Amino acid sequence: MTSPTIRVETAETEAAAWHARLGARNVSTGTIEEFFAWRAEPANAAAYRRVEKVWADTGKLADDPAIMEALEAAMSRKAGTGRSRAVPRGVLGLAAVGAAAALAMGGWAWMQSRTVFVTGVGEQRVVQLADGSSIRLDTGSRVRVRFAGDQRLVDLERGQALFTVAHDRARPFVVQAGGTQVTAVGTVFDVRRDAAAVSVTLVSGVVDVAPAGEGRAVQRMVAGQRTRVTAGEVAVRSVDVQAETSWTDGRIVFRDTPLRLAVAEVNRYLTAKIELEATSLDAVPVNGVFRTGDRDAFVSTASQVFELEVTPGPDGTVRLSERKNN
Predict the structure, then answer these.
(1) Range of the domain at 15
(2) Is the pTM of the predicted complex or chain greater than 0.70?
């Protein structure tokens, strides 16, 4: 007969393994369905909640010598480099979770980065979360996911992401971007963070936007609105949601966008960028739809429409400047 202690340790080990699998770069729909079936068992669901709590703040694990000892011992056994060392019984369950998860993803490096998801320049990525939510990261973005028992917290450290949130009224889904906080229960919204502002576009549902700073009221948004938060103001307006989230389809939509801002937007997806010399045309409006990363199409169109000179630059860059009259 299997003892309750063994069953708990088995559930924790399986939970840690699932936590690792769901953090992989590509997670299939089949894997998500398998996870939900496994989590349907109350003991498994409880074990997974314990794992989420352990990993809610991964930095704390590094300060726990017992867990570090357990992890090092587990890594030694895996590599066959020595005998296992005894672990204090009081930390066995927690250490087992940490060691199993670390082994599943390759050690301590994974422990430090488990909840961080990043995209490079020109890259997009979809992350499936254990609660059924998903995050679609745009170019040059970074998020940190921290799920605990009563809250789902995501830090958007840079860039842009579209959040599709699974409904769970008991566990609000909170996105932090700088000092701005967006709270949702079950909805779809886009958050963009750059040096000047944080912008939130609501695709469906309802969210609350709490700007940083004392005395700034929480903004309740409805679908079709965008809230832009800067140091000086909070501006809300109606927008074309499809245009605002066109990046998810690999498109950039410009509607009366000043040329300099249009160039900056195209450059977000490029390693070899476009340089726009200071020109009287900086503010001329740009209209059109371009594929993300298609520098040639944008340069060709802009040079023809605005009569700009195209000059190859170092490292594959191109420079746009006003044509000189002969």
Answers:
(1) 4-113
(2) no
